Amino acid sequence: MSATTPLYDTYLRAPLRFERGEGVWLIAEDGTRYLDFAAGVAVNSLGHAHPHLVEALKAQADKVWHLSNLYEVPGQESLARRLTQVTFADRVFFTNSGAEALECAIKTARRYHFAKGHPEKFHVITFEGAFHGRTIATIAAGGQQKYIEGFGPKAPGFYQVPFGDIAAVRNAINDETAAILIEPIQGEGGIRLASKEFLQELRALCDEFGLLLILDEVQCGVGRTGKLFAHEWAGIRPDIMAVAKGIGGGFPLGACLATDAAAAGMVAGTHGSTYGGNPLAMAVGNAVLDVILADGFLEHVRDVALVFRQGLASLKDRFPDVIEEIRGDGLMLGIKAKVPSTDLLAAIRAERLLAVPAGENVLRLLPPLITTAAEAREGLARLERAAEAVRSKSGDAAA
Ligand SMILES: Cc1ncc(COP(=O)(O)O)c(C=O)c1O
């Protein structure tokens, strides 16, 4: 029996075929232009075809693509040095994806306790609604049955507690606990923010019990909230952090960052990756940082975020029958719909605006960080027309 596609059926794809991108725009094969406020699910941090990134990739492509980690890779040294200069971290391990960055983070935490003579401390406390990736360990860390089912026994050592419930975290800590792992803003879970106080309390609990605090900033990091990393708003420092998506601006790149102390167990031979830290990814990652760390860039993100946030708040006031709540921080925003979010998404797409579904009936807006105030207003105008369309459709249905 031949299938209609030779591809796995694992993705529910929209029937859209894009040929190229320009800044915040994606252009379909038939020439239709879409305003891309999905940005590859927070990946295209600098939009599409950013000239500085294109130039960096092309220049590296002319030199060398792949070396392996048998040798020194200068781009790794420079990108790691820059990341450690602007974060809590002393050490960096490069990966190709978010899930691999999380795998490295979990392994780093377990090895930390192992190296200190406590191999029994390998349990990680995680949170309901979390998403950490699709590997066997990260589906266990995320704890969502829909991703775990059918893939054999859940990997041991991961315990979920309710998001934001500090008493539940304290209760879950025992002699086998190694670390607490949290997304400062849950993305797939529905743009759910951990409060500053909660993050501070988690830091304090980790200090009290000798645990490592691991942050998953794969989606909320790299400028998305208007600071380089979301946890900076809470004034805390993690021990380990997983980063990906925006750091590569569309090129596959992830990183696990750690303090010297947390990374102490990761000695030669304990971890590795064929492609992790390859010269092409390093060239692009360095180019992304050139832009994001430039004077005024994060301020620009905060300014545009404000325009967006105010516009969304006013839409919520005008369409209380369509929009229940606006969530998020910076350019990581969520519209909790009152109607089925699939209806709103379809209406938004009909306006040639791209958004991303998430849990709790939320639609995510994750515009590229280079979005201008005028482009944000264009997006808001499209959202307004979409809300009108949904309202009149549900009015028709009621009539
Ligand atoms: C918070 C978070 N962690 C981890 C991942 C996994 O990243 P990847 O798909 O690159 O493996 C994602 C992907 O959506 C994510 O949003």
TrEMBL record:
Annotated positions of the N6-(pyridoxal phosphate)lysine modification: 245
A single Gene Ontology CC term: cytoplasm
PROSITE patterns: AA_TRANSFER_CLASS_3 (PS00600)
Catalytic activity: N(2)-acetyl-L-ornithine + 2-oxoglutarate = N-acetyl-L-glutamate 5-semialdehyde + L-glutamate
Stretches of the chain forming a coiled coil according to its record: none
Classification via InterPro entries: AcOrn/SuccOrn_fam (IPR004636), Aminotrans_3 (IPR005814), Aminotrans_3_PPA_site (IPR049704), Class-III_PLP-dep_AT (IPR050103), PyrdxlP-dep_Trfase (IPR015424), PyrdxlP-dep_Trfase_major (IPR015421), PyrdxlP-dep_Trfase_small (IPR015422)
Positions contributing to pyridoxal 5'-phosphate binding: 98-99, 131, 216-219, 274
Binding-site residues for N(2)-acetyl-L-ornithine, renumbered to this chain: 134, 273
Keywords per UniProt: Amino-acid biosynthesis, Aminotransferase, Arginine biosynthesis, Cytoplasm, Pyridoxal phosphate, Transferase
Cofactor: pyridoxal 5'-phosphate
GO MF: identical protein binding; N2-acetyl-L-ornithine:2-oxoglutarate 5-aminotransferase activity; pyridoxal phosphate binding
Transmembrane segments: none
GO biological process, one term: L-arginine biosynthetic process
Co-factor: note: Binds 1 pyridoxal phosphate per subunit.
Superkingdom, natural source: Bacteria
EC number: 2.6.1.11
Pathway(s) the chain acts in: Amino-acid biosynthesis; L-arginine biosynthesis; N(2)-acetyl-L-ornithine from L-glutamate: step 4/4
Intracellular or extracellular location(s): Cytoplasm
Similarity comment: Belongs to the class-III pyridoxal-phosphate-dependent aminotransferase family. ArgD subfamily.
Subunit structure: Homodimer.
Miscellaneous section: May also have succinyldiaminopimelate aminotransferase activity, thus carrying out the corresponding step in lysine biosynthesis.
NCBIfam families: argD (TIGR00707), PRK01278.1 (NF002325)
Designated name of the protein: Acetylornithine aminotransferase
Natural source organism: Sinorhizobium saheli
